[in-house]
Design the sequence.
């Protein structure tokens, strides 16, 4: 080839590369991000008090067509309204939810929130009451083990019950918050055949199920422990489907024999932990190696804490489940045992993988809860009252139902229904509401930089005794000194008795020191919108205008504003959607988008 021809060929190749480069850039995959979520805390609902499960709106980028949102291993229902967009997705807190980080997954990747969503839950007395020893007269045959979910996302609980021969029954709630369940028969594969937990055609006995979304694709995964110590994964055949596809055994995991898996995120790193009980009475921990990925094949045993730490052992055939019974932010492990008793142990600290020594759960007479043999607990809020029920399988195949005992003779002085923290340029806005108050003197707002050591910030007078909903708020104007700040409420009675709320965390997404633009929050907002000028601004006349996307003014006011936050007065009820907020001072006009939901 001549030198000129060689030069021409190289030039053509170079031009091709240059021309193709922009096309490759355009095709670049954009992974989702989470900027914030609101509210930062909420409950799974309390139907008797008319409190619905909390709707959480996550804002960020590249959130279109969100496949899955997990809260500490539990799938959150993605709501159709408000619609999922590129910048937001709204989900509902599930009934059995535990405080934890939010993981959002789309087809292009996954993102983890910077702070935890705090699940608020009413605290009972710590005692259990037997409701029935034959829940809905169901009998699986022998060795029943239950798990709760909502396969078709119709708002009704699906109770999946494994039994000796390796099949799994589905019982569905008759109506919302009903204690009546209908036995719809054994689960089936997409092919129409009965799902039987087996290996190479040899039936595995003692099917022990748990439900999660292991890979974040929006399809529920059914993980089933078997007699031989392995765990088999089955995945929903389609969104909301009642049938499954066999994926196969989880590779490299053998946890003794007759194993029962459970899913939670113990250490708060956003990776799921699979906790597996077995015939030896211990609980093994396997952690995902990557987000939405496989579990490590190396396990560690759960232990107590301290220099004399011992392996947790409930005697034999341990079957663990995890929750936060008392809403104190520490995970409780509820473990069934071969002896028929149910044991409880509490996480020694937030994000710790160690627990207190397990103790037997009892009724109000301090008599140990006993289902006869091979207790297999599941956590379900059957009646939607906010208190988790225990549905406990056993060796004879029935289901016992226990509910938490709530003291009615000595009611809690305050029924706190929400407590949220919102970062802003002017500090942190704290809001809380109560459904009722009894001899309540004051609320003490406490703040922490590390989540453990709290100091009092201010006191807010309480209502005394009240049976109506009351709303409170306080603006903590100090600059966030840490990436995450923690708050809690100390409620004080007239007699000096104190009660603490759950802890809420707020990320320092906005800096009061460096902010140069006016603030508007919460965003999205509902009935109230709070505004403030940049840090250091003095009081000055400020024109406020709120425009819809057609440019039509829907609200106008003139306020004396400064860096101190102020709620817009007489804000009308606005349709959901995007608006432009204009704030005009002597220095000029600024505009920013806000969303009403």
Sequence:
């Amino acid at each position: 080839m001549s030198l000129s021809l060689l030069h021409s060929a190289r030039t053509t190749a170079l031009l091709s590369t240059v021309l193709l480069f922009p096309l490759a850039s355009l095709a670049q995959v954009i992974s989702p991000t989470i900027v914030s979520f609101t509210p930062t805390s909420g409950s799974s609902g309390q139907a008797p008090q008319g409190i619905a499960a909390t709707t959480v709106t996550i804002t960020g980028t590249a959130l279109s067509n969100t496949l899955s949102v997990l809260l500490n291993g539990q799938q959150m229902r993605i709501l159709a309204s408000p619609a999922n967009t590129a910048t937001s997705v709204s989900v509902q807190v599930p009934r059995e939810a535990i405080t934890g980080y939010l993981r959002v997954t789309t087809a292009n990747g996954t993102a983890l929130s910077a702070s935890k969503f705090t699940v608020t839950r009413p605290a009972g007395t710590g005692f259990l009451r037997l409701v029935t020893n034959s829940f809905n007269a169901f009998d699986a045959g022998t060795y029943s083990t239950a798990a709760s979910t909502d396969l078709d996302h119709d708002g009704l609980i699906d109770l999946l019950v494994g039994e000796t021969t390796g099949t799994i029954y589905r019982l569905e709630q008759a109506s919302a918050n009903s204690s009546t369940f209908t036995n719809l028969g054994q689960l089936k594969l997409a092919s129409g055949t009965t799902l039987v937990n087996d290996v190479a055609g040899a039936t595995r006995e003692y099917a022990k199920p748990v439900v999660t979304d292991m890979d974040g694709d929006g399809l529920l995964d059914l993980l089933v422990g078997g007699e031989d110590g392995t765990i088999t994964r089955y995945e929903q055949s389609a969104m909301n489907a009642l049938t499954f596809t066999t994926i196969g055994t989880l590779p490299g995991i053998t946890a003794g024999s007759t194993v029962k898996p459970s899913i939670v995120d113990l250490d708060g790193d956003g990776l799921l932990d699979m906790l597996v009980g077995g015939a030896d009475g211990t609980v093994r921990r396997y952690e995902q190696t990557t987000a939405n990925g496989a579990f490590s094949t190396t396990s560690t045993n759960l232990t107590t804490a301290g220099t004399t730490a011992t392996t947790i052992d409930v005697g034999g055939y341990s079957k663990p489940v995890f929750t936060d019974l008392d809403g104190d932010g520490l995970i409780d492990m509820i473990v069934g045992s071969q002896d028929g008793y149910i044991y409880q142990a509490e996480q020694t600290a937030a994000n710790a993988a160690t627990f207190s020594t397990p103790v037997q759960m009892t009724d109000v007479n301090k008599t140990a809860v006993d289902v006869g043999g091979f207790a297999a607990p599941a956590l379900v809020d059957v009646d939607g009252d906010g208190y988790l029920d225990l549905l406990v399988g056993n060796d004879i195949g029935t289901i016992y139902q226990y509910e938490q005992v709530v003291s009615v003779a000595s009611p809690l002085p305050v029924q706190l229904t929400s407590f949220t923290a919102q970062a802003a340029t002017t500090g942190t806005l704290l809001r809380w509401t109560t459904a009722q108050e009894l001899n309540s003197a004051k609320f003490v707002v406490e703040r922490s930089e590390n989540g453990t050591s709290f100091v009092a910030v201010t006191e807010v007078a309480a209502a005394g005794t009240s049976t109506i909903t009351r709303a409170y708020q306080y603006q903590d104007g100090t600059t966030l000194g840490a990436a995450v700040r923690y708050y809690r409420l100390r409620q004080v009675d007239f007699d000096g008795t104190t009660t603490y709320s759950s802890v809420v965390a707020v990320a320092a997404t906005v800096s009061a020191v460096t902010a140069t633009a006016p603030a508007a929050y919460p965003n999205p907002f509902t009935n109230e919108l709070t505004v403030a000028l940049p840090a250091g601004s003095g009081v000055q006349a400020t024109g406020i205008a709120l425009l819809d996307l057609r440019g039509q003014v829907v609200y106008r006011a003139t306020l004396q504003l400064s860096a101190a936050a102020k709620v817009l007065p007489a804000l009308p009820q606005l349709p959901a959607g995007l608006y432009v907020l204009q704030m005009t001072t002597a220095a000029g006009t600024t505009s920013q988008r806000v969303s009403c939901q």
